[in-house]
Amino acid sequence: MPQNRIDHITHEALNRFLSGPGLDPFFNRFTENLIYRLQSLGVGDQWTDMEDLWGLFKSKVTPAAIEAMCGSSLVSLTPSIADDLWAYDSAIPDLVKGLPRWWVPKSFVKRDHILQSIKKWHAFARTHFDESQIGSDGDWDPKFGSEFIRSRQRTFPKMDGMDDDAVAASDLGAIWATNTNAIPSTFWCTLECFSDPSLLSRVREEVGKCVVRTDTGKDRFDIKALGKNLLLQSIYAEALRLRIAAFIMRSPERENMKINEWILPKGEIVLIATTPAQMDEKMWSTGKANEYPLDRFWADRFLVYPGDPTSGPRKASYQETSKVQKGEEPRFSLDDLGGSWIPYGGGFRACPGRHFAKREILMTFAITVTLFDIEVDGSKALQTDPRANGLGAQRPKNQIPFRIRKRRTHYQQ
Q1: Domain of 8: which CATH number?
Q2: What pTM did the predictor assign?
Q3: Total count of domains within the chain
Q4: Which residues, in sequence order, are CB contacts of 192 under 8 Å at separation 6+?
């Protein structure tokens, strides 16, 4: 039955929301929410010590994204929703293994807890939804949030077996997927920048070029300018290359697939790890004298400079010399990296949230480096949590102490 094509229906809805007509309203709401939450952080011109930089991103960026997607009701009904989401995220390594409840009870409790919050929100929103409260953008209302969520509420009840538990589980998946990779990636961009004063200076100069003054006298970042900025694009691409470790799932649908001496049987699930491709020393450039190994962040790795065949993301032996001739302008390049830079997967099943994720990462990064000075405690060796390996963006294993103060800037919000 057409109404039971769950995968097709949900995938098309995600595309409309995250890369189609729903993208701009969603992103604009996220930006407004984020600025409000960062400005209410409670830091002044003097240094303030804080326990964990990663915790700051989880507590401020996550609810901004959730409210932009799901409306203000979910956050007001469950003020701990951001903490609950990341508690659920910590349980994912247990849950994806299919372990029984009695073996990992705490992981199931974390999932049950956030599912109950989502069901509570659904029930409240269904009772109190008022179509007249839909905003002028035609997308957002305070109860359900976005047209994306409302459309699911209209569609899911028509599907066989799609009860309240299943609807809550599906929305949890959408909420989790929207946050789980973009927010850690933003954190890594920010950490790398504040750990390198020379890079921070360059970044602030570049983001300053992307500020426009509105008719109301306030400043805002032009997301199109941020998205075209060479240095910011390279930082974004490098953070994803270095910190995304995922398994891409594929299945030969029509016939057996042969790759070299291997046969992939029709209908079988194939897991493709992104890390070997994104850390392949035979393919990726490591600078003129190999001074930038692939396990080290290099902000300029994706920039091609005129007359320098060692610049750009690929080794010189793979570069087309016509692309790096003297007299040309530097440029950002993902040329010929379709099988090497794959943080979002590829093909028809590439992550539908990749366009929003890029905007979210660049905007959060730009706002943070503009509004704040941050000094990170570098006395502790930075490690990533091995439990997240294969699940997407890596998380830091331990807390990262830092201190923060508000910058004296001409940027007016």
Answers
A1: 1.10.630.10
A2: 0.93
A3: 1
A4: 199, 235, 239, 297, 299
What is the span of the domain harbouring residue 24? 2-242+354-379
Banded pLDDT at 113 (limits 50, 70, 90): very high
Position of tokens 């029709």?
A: 266
Altogether, the residues listed in the chain come to a count of 413
89 located within any domain = yes
Tell me whether residue 85 is in a domain. yes
For 189, residues 6+ apart whose C-beta sits below 8 A from its C-beta are: 235, 236, 239, 361, 365
Residue 189 labelled as part of a binding site: no
Any domain includes 296: no
Contacts of 141 (CB under 8 A, 6+ apart): 71, 129, 130, 131, 133, 134, 135, 150
pLDDT tens readout for residues 194-221: 999 999 999 999 999 998 877 676 788 9
